[in-house]
Design a protein that fits this description.
The complex is a heterotrimer of chains A (354), B (243) and C (300).
Chain A lengths: L2 E10 L2 E11 L4 E5 L6 H9 L10 E4 L2 E2 L10 E4 L11 H10 L9 H14 L15 H13 L5 E5 L7 H18 L2 E6 L2 H7 L2 E6 L2 E6 L1 H6 L4 H6 L4 E8 L2 E4 L2 E4 L9 E7 L4 E4 L9 E9 L4 E8 L4 E7 H7 L6 E6 L3 E4 L1
Parallel strand pairs in A: 3-8, 3-9, 6-7, 7-8
Antiparallel strand pairs in A: 1-2, 1-4, 4-5, 9-10, 11-12, 11-14, 12-13, 14-20, 15-19, 16-17, 16-19, 17-18
Chain B lengths: L1 H5 L4 H10 L1 H34 L5 H7 L2 H4 L2 H12 L6 H4 L10 H25 L3 H9 L4 H30 L2 H7 L9 H10 L3 H31 L3
Helix pairs in contact in B: 2-13, 3-8, 3-10, 6-8, 6-11, 8-10, 8-11, 9-10, 10-13, 12-13
Chain C lengths: L22 H30 L4 H6 L4 H34 L5 H13 L2 H12 L6 H6 L8 H12 L1 H14 L2 H8 L4 H30 L2 H7 L9 H10 L3 H45 L1
Helix pairs in contact in C: 1-13, 3-7, 3-8, 3-10, 3-12, 5-7, 5-11, 7-10, 7-11, 8-10, 9-10, 10-13, 12-13
The chains are: A alpha+beta (354), B mainly alpha (243), C mainly alpha (300).
């Protein structure tokens, strides 16, 4: 079931949550909506589900090219998982999962035997077979979310929407469930769209990532694409750590801080103010000045060697703070100390101009 | 307190005076019966009022919300004479029913109306917080799963606010049983027919029949404590499923 | 008091839009609610004022000039003047203890405070008669000291105090609980004395709840009928409060006078509601401001 939304806008009072947004999700894809709070990602999700209506007169919502705009939320066949689970407190786990099947119209309602079998099957899928008789207040956060997922899947939705599904859970549980969700998706192949503000989660789990900001979509692409080839300053800044410099482009070189770097052919025509972005792992450190490559002088401020990579905080000769990430091996071979003078060289930079 | 009041009567005499006496028994039947009806009325309409105040927006909503507290602030004697005058055969509303020979004041309907008035805030004020704390997401989840609006109400909303509803009912019930002022005027106070239990206590006291008054008082106290117990149980029950 | 202002909205104050019942059901329910309230609350209230002024303003005023009326008004005012301050002090102290601390017997205290609510005012009166009446428990002891409680003013005051005790407490407990201990502890560490802390830190935060509690207590104190009926002896001119006086006037078929006195108390009740309205309105304004500020923060 493919999902497509075209030219959707949504205003709440004076606040414009979505500004002419269009998006396409292929059948069976697992797509992440990633962005800061208030950027509109949850609104997109809720509009697809039918829990919100887009500003009238404009835009379309299509499932497999069928217009859903007029359909009530209860007939869209959408499974929705909420951040705070929204389990029915007064019903057991079994009753929660069976709910969607129990409320079907008499003509379509399956018999008790079928429902029982289906619920058992789902309990097995979420690995909670023994908890059928428990109540939500007797479950942990991770267990509740799995029940919420099973409940959504019970009615065999064509589309699965998850609103910050792991946002309310501890870090460790979050990571475990993340992997579990990916595996589940690979098994079931239900078109899924999930909202998160946790980039690690989005980049790790999704087939494609949609970056939102201030009611607009900044970029859509695979995790690799958005991370290594960001389409805008915002995306570059938002994903991962980055060092930012302000400089100028002129005559085929970009100058910032105290170095000049020649630009490749296709960029050498540009001229004017520029913002230069360098990822920490693209900042190499040398103890001696490199012969013919542009490099900056810097002083080491702090070293944090607890982790897969070593983080080195530096300050340039012009007083700008800079972060570098180098491998443990490189760090040992360099033997630098806090307060020492080093030379830093960017291996790869991205430039955005106005 | 119960000990105090019960101090002077032997069990036998207690039974005789407090229960076996037909006039006393008639007053119990009236007090408890009418209170029950009044509490039911409050349950139904009070729920609607609470629902409308919490979920909908309309002009003057704030005034409506404030006026729910009127029975708290208005002296029972005032509401007593007002209701009686209103529903008597010469009153604004009573006159509408006079041609059909339906008596409201000085009969059971009037008593129920007065009792409903005093219990009105209880259901509304108990249900309001329960409705407020209802997670919107639960309703949305139910809708996504295919439930119609009625099904959402019946299977999700109602069960969740049920403890609050019942608590409000019990409180309104307890209040109505003990109510004196507003019922006294409208009841007519005919023994065996429209005499409420509190009035009988007062009459006995004025006759210096302390024992008789105390006997009835003990029964009413027991009923009150019993209801209090139920209310506490209900509140415990509602907390049990809190996440 | 349940807050009207957090009515079913998402974060940032956005209302739920699409998951609602049909418009006609909404209108029907609102209509039923308004009809119910109108019949039971508004009409009687209007009637009180209507009948009070039925014979004109002069007749209205003359209802208050009879000796008995004045005595009743005076007694009511005296009772209120004693009961309200005492119950306020008690209420603040009890709410402060209950809302901020854990101690042995706390549940018992809470139940005790709710007692006047559960017990019929007649029974409350009965208990006091049994305690203080001439044939009662303490009767002979009091007789010796020539101190009369029942069928005299002290009895009325005590009975009224018992019946109106819970109001200030119940109003303040949630406020005390919400504020918690931290602000006060901060004040104490900064060097403020216990009394100063209470005056400058605790009191302002409960200000509005306290005002409402006092006004409500006053309305209830002046309007108490059942308990006072039992305890007062109905001695005209001596132990009649306003509500009892209303009863007398009404039974004597002096309708206008009865409703005139009643209208005073009804007016007091309306004032009580107005105060509550003002408090709600002020709260909602503060909330709306906070919501708007949060929205702006998100947009930037």
């Amino acid at each position: 079931m493919s999902i497509e939304i075209r030219n959707i806008s949504k205003t709440f009072g004076a606040f414009k949550a979505l500004d002419d947004v269009s998006l396409s999700v292929g059948s069976g894809e697992l797509v992440a909506l990633l962005g800061p709070s208030g950027s509109g990602k949850t609104t997109i999700l809720r509009i697809i589900a039918g829990l919100e209506q887009p500003d009238s007169g404009k835009g379309e919502i299509l499932f497999n090219n069928e217009d859903m705009g007029e359909k009530h939320v209860s007939s869209r066949g959408v499974g929705f998982v909420f951040q705070h689970y929204a389990l029915f407190r007064h019903m057991s786990v079994f009753e929660n999962i069976a709910f969607g099947l129990n409320v079907k119209k008499r003509a379509e309602r399956p018999d008790k035997g079928y429902i029982r079998a289906k619920v058992q099957e789902l309990l097995k899928l979420i690995q909670l077979e023994d908890l059928a008789g428990r109540y939500p207040h007797q479950l942990s956060g991770g267990q509740r979310q799995r029940v919420a997922l099973a409940r959504a899947l019970a009615v065999e939705p064509k589309v699965l929407l998850l609103d910050e599904p792991f946002g309310a859970l501890d870090a460790k549980v979050r990571k475990d469930l993340r992997t579990w969700l990916r595996n589940l998706h690979d098994k079931l192949h239900v078109t899924s769209l999930f909202v998160t503000h946790d980039q690690e989660e989005a980049l790790e789990v999704a087939d494609r990532v949609v970056i939102t900001n201030l009611g607009k979509i900044e970029q859509v692409g695979t995790p690799d694409e958005v991370f290594h080839h960001p389409a805008s300053e915002f995306v570059m800044n938002f994903l991962g750590d980055v060092n930012t410099f302000h400089g100028r482009i002129d005559e085929g070189t970009v100058s910032f801080n105290s170095i000049e770097i020649p630009l490749s052919e296709n960029h050498s025509q540009r001229k004017g103010q520029a913002t230069v972005f360098i990822r920490p792992y693209d900042v190499t450190i040398d103890t001696t000045k490199p012969a013919d490559l542009p490099a900056l002088e810097a002083k080491v401020l702090r070293i944090n060697a607890a982790g897969a990579l070593v983080r080195v905080e530096l300050v340039t000769d012009l007083g700008k703070n800079l972060t570098s990430e180098i491998s443990q091996e490189r760090f040992s071979s360099l033997a630098i100390e806090v307060g020492g003078k080093v030379y830093v060289r960017p291996r790869h930079i991205r430039i955005f101009t106005q | 307190m119960v000990l105090f009041t019960g101090a002077r009567i032997s069990i036998e005499e207690f039974w005789l005076r407090a229960v076996a006496d037909p006039r006393v028994f008639a007053s119990y039947r009236l007090s408890f019966g009418a209170s029950f009806l009044a509490a039911l009325l409050n349950l139904f309409f009070g729920f609607i009022v609470a629902w409308v105040l919490i979920r909908y927006d309309f002009w003057g909503k704030r005034f409506v919300d404030a006026i729910v507290d009127l029975p708290f602030a208005l002296p029972t004697a005032v509401s007593g004479i007002a209701l009686t005058t209103l529903y008597a055969h010469t009153g604004w509303i009573g006159a509408l029913f006079a041609p059909f020979d339906i008596k409201i004041a000085y009969a059971l309907p009037g008593i129920v109306i007065a009792m409903t008035l005093v219990g009105l805030p209880f259901v509304v004020r108990t249900v309001q917080p329960a409705l407020e704390s209802l997670e919107v997401e639960m309703e949305e989840a139910a809708s996504c799963l295919g439930a119609t609006r009625w099904q959402v109400f019946r299977y999700v909303i109602l069960p969740t606010v049920l403890p609050a509803l019942l608590t409000g009912f019990a409180m309104a019930f307890a209040r109505a049983i003990g109510e004196f002022g507003s019922v006294y005027f409208i009841a007519g106070n005919m023994p065996y027919k429209t005499e409420i239990a509190p009035l009988l206590v007062l009459i006995r006291l004025e006759q210096f029949d302390y024992v008789g008054a105390t006997a009835i008082g003990v029964v009413m106290l027991i009923a009150a404590f019993f209801l209090l117990l139920i209310i506490n149980l209900l509140q415990w029950w509602s907390r049990k499923y809190q996440i | 008091m349940a807050s009207l202002n957090s009515s079913k909205t998402m974060p940032l104050g956005m209302p739920i839009t699409s998951n609602r019942e049909a418009a006609f059901i909404r209108i029907l329910l609102i209509g039923i609610a308004l009809f119910f309230l109108g019949m039971f609350l508004v009409m009687p209230l209007i009637l009180v004022f209507g009948y009070a002024f039925r014979d004109g303003f002069a007749a209205y005023l003359s209802s208050f000039t009879s000796g008995e009326s004045l005595a009743a008004i005076k007694l009511t005012l005296i009772t209120a003047a004693i009961v309200v301050p005492l119950n306020t002090l008690f209420g603040v102290a009890a709410a402060w203890a209950i809302g901020k601390f854990e101690f042995k017997g706390k549940t018992f205290l809470i139940t005790l405070i709710d007692l006047p609510f559960a017990v019929s005012p007649i029974i409350a009166g009965l208990i006091f008669v049994l305690l203080f009446g001439s044939l009662g428990f303490l009767g002979p002891w009091l007789l010796e000291r020539n101190f009369q409680i029942i069928f005299a003013t002290p009895g009325i005051v005590i009975a009224t105090m018992f019946v109106t005790a819970p109001f200030v407490v119940r109003e303040l407990i949630p406020l005390m609980q919400a504020q918690g201990n931290e602000q006060e502890q901060a004040a104490l560490t900064l060097g403020a004395s216990g009394w100063k802390t209470f005056w400058l830190v605790t009191l302002p935060s409960i200000k509005w709840g306290l005002i409402y509690g006092i006004i409500l207590t006053n309305a209830r104190a002046m309007g108490e009928f059942g308990a006072v009926s039992v305890v007062s002896g109905h001695i005209r001119g001596l132990t009649n409060t306003m509500p009892l006086h209303i009863e007398i006037l009404y039974n004597d078929y002096q309708m206008t006078a009865a409703f005139a006195v009643a209208s005073l108390l009804a007016f007091l009740a309306v004032i009580t509601l107005v105060v509550r309205l003002l408090i709600e309105w002020k709260n909602s304004r503060d909330n709306a401001l906070a919501i708007r500020e949060a929205q702006q923060e998100y947009q930037s």
